[in-house]
Amino acid sequence: MTGNWVKIIARVMLMILSICWIPARADVIASQQVLSAAPTQQQQHERQVVAGFLARADVRHQLQQWGVNADDAQARVNALNDDEVHQLYGHVQSAPAAGMDIIGALIFIFIVLLITDILGLTKVFPFTRSIRH
Fold first, then answer.
1. What's the number of domains the chain is made of?
2. How far, in Å, CA of 31 to CA of 37, rounded?
3. Distances (CA, A) of 40 to 34, 35, 50, 93
4. Is residue 15 in some structural domain?
5. Does the residue 4 lie in any domain?
């Protein structure tokens, strides 16, 4: 009796599996594509450290003295790619807590903003002229 049920169930399963098939498709992708698709925890940490640096009162004050809106600077840093954030993170991490090298990091931010102004991506500084017309 159980042998008949096994044969019946096997035939039904065979029919179901032969009717309902979906072809599988897989493409080859490059390792760089996978790595660049999702930010790693280290990249997220670096972005958080740089954002925390820009949120400091002394950094905001120095940016205001240079005529840069701190929120614009934060938006620019958010738009940086991972390599640029890593470089900026290196400057922030190498700066002492009191901050003589903070000026180096601020100069780096200034240069990033200046380059984006010259390329016509932003208009932060009034003394720059865009290469785009």
1. 1
2. 10
3. 11, 8, 16, 19
4. no
5. no
Tell me how far apart the alpha carbons of residues 12 and 14 are, in angstroms, rounded to a whole number.
5
Q: Is residue 53 part of a domain?
A: yes
pTM flag (> 0.85): no
| Cα atoms found within 13 Å of the Cα of residue 75, Cβ hemisphere only | 10
109: nearest Cα among 84, 132, 83: 84
Which residue is associated with the tokens 């949120």?
A: 55
What are the Cα distances from residue 5, in Å, to 12, 16, 71? 10, 16, 72
Crossing angle (nearest 10°) for helices 82-94 and 102-118: 150
| pLDDT tens-digit map of 8-64 | 888 888 887 777 666 767 788 787 776 666 667 888 888 888 888 888 888 888 888
